[in-house]
Amino acid sequence: MKTLKLLRHAKSDWHTPYDDDKLRGLNSRGHRDIARIAPLLSSYLISSQSILVSAAHRAQLTIQGIADMPSPENEAPLNWTVDESLYTFSMTHLLSLLGNISNDFTDICFVGHNPAFIELINYLVMPPLDNFPTCGFIEMKLQIHSWQDIKEGCGKVSFYLTPKQIKKGSV
């Protein structure tokens, strides 16, 4: 069995003009959502053998914001690697990346973007999600022995969390 975790970047800043989409930062709601969700995600992220983060500034700010939040689980530093190839909006590109992961890894996390993430989630698990919001997190248990065996419907959601769930107190 393999575990795949996806963390969508927090709400980005669309009011500031950027020459390059990768440079876009976070807006105030994005920062609030990180503060809201971080304490509940620390144990899930610490258990990941590898955290790969999109080269987009907003994705890096999201993981850094979570790492900076005090939590009993994050006494050890949270480590991640920026991966240029995760700056993608294509599910097929994500499937290709997953197929190239070493089978020494059983638990990985990607920090990145929709629509690639929602399409990948809906490819892997049933029933499909209607939405994967900004700063949303999902953990999926994949019924595979090798990352190269990934296929449609091979996963089950084991944990799903959004900032709105926390705000409403349904966590």
UniProtKB/TrEMBL annotation:
It comes from the Bacteria. This is Phosphohistidine phosphatase. It comes from Thalassotalea eurytherma. The gene is sixA_2.
